[in-house]
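#onboarding

Welcome to the new folks! Below is a worked example of what a typical request in this channel looks like: someone posts a single protein sequence, and someone else replies with the predicted structure as tokens. Don't worry about understanding the tokens yet, we'll cover that in week two.

Example request:
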Amino acid sequence: MRTFTKTLVAVTASAALVATGTACSSSGGGDKKPIADIKKLTGQSTSVKLDPTFVAALGTLKLTPAPTGNAKFDANSGTVTFPITGGNAKVYKKGKVTPYVQGSIQHNGSGLSLTGGATKVTLQNFVIDPGNNSKLTGEVLANGKVAVKSAKLFDLDGSTLKPITVNSSTGVATLTGTTVKISSDAAALLNKTFKTTAVKAGTTVGIATLLVNTK
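Example response:
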């Protein structure tokens, strides 16, 4: 059960990291030049460190979780990681532009599966939208068949996001601190599919961290 919740969290986490827009103040004067302007994302990852409360909340579900594709789960740290496969991103100084993180971050070819009895749900091909209503969407499969092509899986709360840091030697930018929460759509979907009421909308899944190449 811990593995399931952690994997699920990581998926959402990706989205959470980039989704910082809601935490920014309204646009004003000053320098609006982006700190980082990545027109084509070429690598690195989105990861989520699962919240113990979230793990406990899903503890009553008898599900067998498994990362799919290129996703990885670290049991020691309770972190799930999804490779970034494409997209774009602009990051501005916090408070200068709203939202101060903009773009689209894709994670094709990875995801997670949840199996309970004869039912297997797969969440895959995540996309993070860091706009004012920051979210993470993805494709949902039920027993191998597409159930929802693009579903809103997680809400991203950027009010807890820490300032961006960029390694001057490697050019790797780090965004961490976004809180990932289960969306009402995802809660309803999982509850209906697995015949439970244990999944609550708004439950904190974990804290997301995004690593992107800026060079």
